[in-house]
Amino acid sequence: MLSAHYDSLLVAVSILVAVLASYTALDMAERINAAQEFGSRSWLVGGAIAMGIGIWSMHFIGMLAFRLPIDMGYDPLITVLSLLIAVSVSGFALWIVSRPELPLHRLLRSAVVLGIGIAAMHYTGMAAMLMAPGIVFDYWLFAASVLIAIVAAGAALWIAFRLRQNTPYVKLARGGAALVMGAAIAGMHYTGMAAASFPLGSVCLAVRDGVGPGWLAILIVVVTLAVLTIALLTSLLDARLESRTAKLARSLAEANEELTQLVLHDNLTKLPNRTLLDDRLNQAIHKASREGGHFALMFCDLDGFKAINDSLGHHVGDLMLVEVAQRISAVTRAQDTVARLGGDEFVIVVELKEPDDAMTVADKLVHIINEPFRIEQHELRVSASIGIAIYPEDGINRHDLVINADAAMYHTKRSGRNGYHFFKSSMNVNAHNQLQWLQDLRLALERKEFVLHYQPKFKSPNGPVQGAEALLRWQHPTHGLVGPDDFIALAERSGLIVPIGAWVLDEACRQMKLWFEMGHETWKIAVNLSALQFAQADLVELVKNTLTKHDLPARCLTLEVTESTAMQDAEASMKILQKISDLGVDISIDDFGTGYSSLLYLKRLPANELKIDRGFVRDLSDGNDDAAIVSAIVALGRTLNLRIVAEGVETTKQQTFLTSVGCDALQGYLMGRPMAVDKFNEAMAALKTSDVQ
């Protein structure tokens, strides 16, 4: 037999290629498993080529490492056939491990097929040497090599199937598995080579027309390493792209979820908003209609919340709204819907067995909202006004239910608040009237329907005139001249009082400028500020700009603030009033005596005037309680160096008493009613004429 030996370097390279091919196969199995249908087929074809070339290269480099004392060559066609066998069995292996399951019977059958295929590739490659006489095989070693191939194939399939998922530490596990698989593949090859013997005098017939081993070894190593490296890099880049795509998909899903949350939920309380409420309400209508059931739609508005929000700030108000939302949610069930429409208005959709069951829920809501709130060291209280509409008794569609529940809620407010009322048909008329008045009120400014009437103020007891108070009237197109008692509350509730108040200030200053130019330079025009106006951040800037616009001296303007408004948040009020006072504008505390003033704060307010409420003046007579109160107010005002004005003077007896106790100015029907500006000018001209005579 011919003496044979191996090139150690090429043996080492062949084992390295086997390990690298094994790792590539494991990585390809993951890509095939993770890809979609078309991508999976592409990765299967590409993986079969890369893995087949790798296994075939290991075999061929091992063949090139084999040295005999004769010239060697390899038949090109048979060599290519061995390569095709390697690619085919690689494709079969990757297809097997890409299946959803790999039961034992399939694993065993596949291991036999794959092992025989690898052995066929090996012995076909050896046949490419075209030895004469033929190679003599040791049948025991031959059988051992085929058995090693089958066992190695089975182990490789099981490992690849187990490691195809991208789990923690999978890269490290694949590295270890690739070493085991590479060693098994190399073991099969070199066992098969050990089974071969070459008789003395053997020659290689492929030397003349075949491929020589010298340059072929270098070419195969370079090409194989390039193919495997490119395959691995492609897989790694695809895995990274897939990871980024998955991360982007997760981010997009989270963004969509967050966007859905923002679109369908109130940002402050996280309760459903109007959009989601409409959907839930439609669902409730369809369900109740289908099953012949009932549900209640409850409108809940907080009483006293606005005062807290205005006096302690929006931060405290927001915290209270969050806690109110939590309390309402705590007394409702999972199948009920609690929504916030905005401001301090909440809506609850409650499933009912019987219509009267709504009373139990409403009782719980009123009770739990009545309990004190502890917000940032403040103990605060509000109450709930609730209106209830029942499906289908009070409406069979969403529009009617909403309108009727809202009407019932406003009926609760008009009835004293802090409670609930079920809708009655009589409330609907009031609700529609309120809605019509609100729509008309929104257009009144645009249509210039507001006018100012002026009531003169006289120096006690009979004059001269010291100025006038501007009083708002609405020249309604159908209802005629409407007094403030009929629309101011609606304007405040809707927030329209702010632009209306700005118009009143502007118009009053414009008129005062005309009187100033007529020679009434000592007059003052008094303008009332509502609580909502007083809470506006730009109030001081509005007053300053209005005075500048009409070139009116600040001393000609008096702003009247009710005692209750000034005392809601005394510290904040002092800052605002001080800024207004710094402009040179007079401050009058209106309706004095009706609130609960702290004298400590009152003496610090930068006020110039106290105005005694008409309620004390109306029933004034010597010796009664009102007379004592008026006397005390005047004495207090004197002590604080404030002017004292009494309004509502209608009789000479009232005039005499108020003058006697020291009131500086009087205002009332006795001296002059509120009048349109032309009537006012005529009355003032008549007074001036009578004074001259």
Overview of this protein structure:
The chain is of the alpha/beta class and 693 residues long. The protein is built from 25 helices and 22 strands. The strands form 6 sheets. An 8-stranded mixed beta barrel has the order 14-15-17-18-19-20-21-22, surrounded by 5 helices. A 5-stranded mixed β-sheet has the order 8-9-7-12-13, with helices on both faces. Strand 19 (586-592), helix 21 and strand 20 form a beta-alpha-beta unit. It is elongated.
Which structural class do the helices and strands define?
alpha/beta
Enumerate the spans where pLDDT stays under 50 for 5 or more consecutive residues.
none
- Tell me the radius of gyration: 48 Å
**Which percent bin holds the helix content?**
55-70%
Identify the strand order in the major beta sheet: 14-15-17-18-19-20-21-22
Shape descriptor reads elongated
